[in-house]
Amino acid sequence: MPRQRNRGREQLPKYVYPTKGYYVYREYQGVEHGRARFAPDRRLCPDDTPIEELWRIFREETAGTRQNTLGWLFDKFIKSAHFRELADSTQAMYKRNARTIESASIKGGRKFGEIPIKGLTPGVFRKYMDRRSEDAYVQANRELSFIKSAFAWAYERDMVTGNPAAKVKKNKETPRDKYVEDAEYLFVRDRATPPIYAAMELAYLCRARINEVLKFDRAMIRDEGLLLERSKGSKTQLIGWTPRLREAIRQGRVGRDGNTKLSRYIISRNDGSQMQYAGFKSAWARLKAKCKKDGMTVDFTYHDLKAKGVSDFDGDKHKASGHKSPRMTAIYDRKRETIKATK
To answer: What is the model's pTM?
Structure first.
């Protein structure tokens, strides 16, 4: 009977175990005389190494044995110049997706990342989607998008002969239609710490995504307004000053002692360093817990604040949103239109 891993180790690469303060790779070498054989342990890194760094080291250590597998293709894609040109948030998401996909178990005790590329078909990915959708219906779509992107990149470079995931259908999603009411917004904002208060205001006032908000720095503060460098190919914009926007900037730079932090970033940690997405996510979760304790369950996401900003904008919503297509703007315009009754 195969060895059962402890809870909490599901995200470790296969045949990697923590022992004596280190992660080691115990390479499987088949069965001999009815018993599994393993190569001597290869020490990878200390056992407090972040999981993403562990996966990077593992990929480098096992590059030769992973040739022409799905995991090998992901390695190549993640190390490519094309990948480095993607937004930081997209890179982080793709790395998480790669880790999840590679570590998924398949028949025979193997991992999905070990499947040879020549054995991958649309049906293989359809089965993956069906299994994954039982627990993570929407996330399965994000993982499929990553697979398609990796294969499309490899196909252009003659590394593969086709994209077996290209015609695999995503799960049907219903676009979010949550409109954040003013009372809801103010209830949450007024309980936020200064940097999260500022992050909420900047998302709403500038119609900005979280990765765009966290990149705001002093160089973007211009006489005419705040320079917003949009991601996903959207056009960079200059957001004109209002008293509320200036107050958001001030709040973002307030430290624990009430004084202005000496930082180049508008949204920063207390030591002045840039706030990372993981840190913001934790702070947002703490804020939601605080609101629940005070009597309100927060049922909107941070990204819903951009949609509120688009919905509440009085003017050309498409231009204000920064979207490339009116169709996308329509998804973000969630405020119900009031129409007079028939006479």
So the answer is: 0.62
Nearest CA to 203 among 282, 195, 254?
Answer: 195
Whether residues 46 and 80 fall in one domain: no
CA 160-168-99 angle, 5° bins: 65
φ/ψ (deg, to 5) at 23: -90, 130
314: helix, strand or coil = coil
Q: Which helix (H) or strand (E) holds 249?
A: helix 243-252
Give Cα 93 to chain centroid, integer Å. Answer: 4
On whether residue 314 sits in a domain, the answer given is yes
Look up the domain containing 16 and give its range: 6-62
Local structure of residue 175 (DSSP, 8 states): P
Is 343 inside any structural domain? no
Cα 292 to Cα 341: distance, rounded to the nearest angstrom: 38
Domain finish residue from 62, 79, 96: 62
Question: Which tens digits make up the pLDDT trace of 102-141?
Answer: 988 887 677 898 888 988 999 999 999 999 988 889 899 9
What secondary structure does DSSP assign to 27-83, as a single string?
A: -EEEEETTEEEEPPPEEEEETTS-HHHHHHHHHHHTTTTTTTBHHHHHHHHHTSHHH
Total domain count, the chain? 3
pLDDT tens-digit readout, 262-318: 889 999 888 888 888 889 999 999 999 999 999 999 999 999 999 999 999 988 888
- Asked whether residue 338 is assigned to any structural domain, the reply reads no
Query: How many residues appear in the chain?
Result: 343
CB 109 within 8 A of CB 2: yes
